[in-house]
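hi support,

uploading two proteins for the ticket. first:
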Amino acid sequence: MTTTATAADAAHLDYVLRIADSALILGQRLAEWCGHGPVIEEDIALTNTALDLIGQARLLLTHAGHLEGKGRGEDALAFLRAEPEYRSLTICELPNEDFGRTCLRNCLFAAFQMQLWQALASSSDAQLAAIAGKSIKEARYHLQHASDWTVRLGDGTEESHGRMQRALDYLWPYTAEFFSPTATDQQAEAAGIGPAGSSLAAAWEESVVPVLEVATLKVPARTPFLSRGKEGRHSEHMGHLLAEMQYLQRAHPGGTW
């Protein structure tokens, strides 16, 4: 195998892991709402969203294991990697805080997923294209649900509006990572595997900004801040999340249920 081929294979694996890990980590975060939702319908809705994301992660991690070719399956990749090996977007690992911030994050992330899945439906990677075809239906529901709550709370009471504006001010800088260029993006795009994140920015804003306007929320100005979770450089919250997520698998290696 040539050096060029090796680099292309590594970029292909890294690209798939980014998508898989983002779904896995956000799914883990949303699962924390189980039994704690403000009303039973929303408790169930958030839990179902978590299950959808973890289902996407399972398919993608299984595919990543085949691409890697080292015999690691979905469980090993999900639970037995060190923190810097995860390629999830930083926004996915941030604490939930209140219901409004959770819904707003879901809105921002699901809008990105919608653009990504649509582009991946024509991927040269047939397995990735098949996963995209299934997942886009789920992302469409996630976006609609989260958008509805973003508007309801943003254009609600003075208290709910203030909380949502503070949530947007906090979360918005992390969305720059969706579109930051990397060598992995360039190689994946060149091989027809999937789009570079930067190519999705305009369509994402066209999807998100009108929702925020109806919610009477002011979009913050961009700053030089750039999170780098997809490069393995995570926030202080990731280690705590992984400690809980990985505990059972590490305490009982190879356990089956």
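and the second one:
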Amino acid sequence: MYQADLVERVHQNLAETIREITRRSRGVVHEEGGLLLYAGAPLDPALWNGVLRVHPGLPAEEVVSRARRFFEERGRGFTLHAMGPLDPDLDATMQSFGRKADSDSPEMVLEAPIGPPPVLPGVTVQEVNSDGQREDFLTAVSSGFRGLGVRDDTWRAAYPDVKSLSAPHIVAIVAYLERSPVAGAMVYVSHGVAEVIHVGVSPAHRRRGLGEFVTRAVTSVGFDRGARLASLQATPMGESVYRRIGFREIARYRWYIFPAAQEVRKP
């Protein structure tokens, strides 16, 4: 696949994943003029509230101004997504405001199915299909994201019921060590792409291969459900794991976080 087509395809799949997460959390999705604005059930800007330009043509300054109006009306902050090859003008506009990206993540893809996860002694995996499994998934994944500043309570607001984690094209899994939930991950399939998200491992159980275990498991599920390509945005902690599995970098996302207006006004 031509590189530019590949970048556009994974970008559109990320946008569709965000739409699904937001709607299933009973949040608000607004699209107009090639701009995707999403306000999830949690108020935090990281992960749950943001803006993507999904079609070219809308000037960068207008992307920022429209996003500010949308989120100021709701009293919350947001994250601006800038995909390197698609949004160089967004980066330039942020730089003209004196802004540096709050984080910078490689967009990585895997273009062929992989083998099953390795056997880990005492570790079993379950697909989330019940309230108990949902609670176990949220417990494991939220603990893995604390170090990135994502509060535990936001996960339960984002995934309020089993339906928010389970559908023909959506699968969440939780890994257990003996009977304790220690890791989890999710996959969304759209546009023929399996978007791997929320790979989280409990801090007390890291460096045991659990991150690779759950990543391989959900990636395989994505291919089994019709994907021809897997995609993810890597954190610094997970990047080496994904490269070892076979994912390769094709672009980078930069994330600019805008706090809520009332937070900016605080002394």
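thanks. also noticed: The chain has two domains: 3-105+252-265, 123-251.
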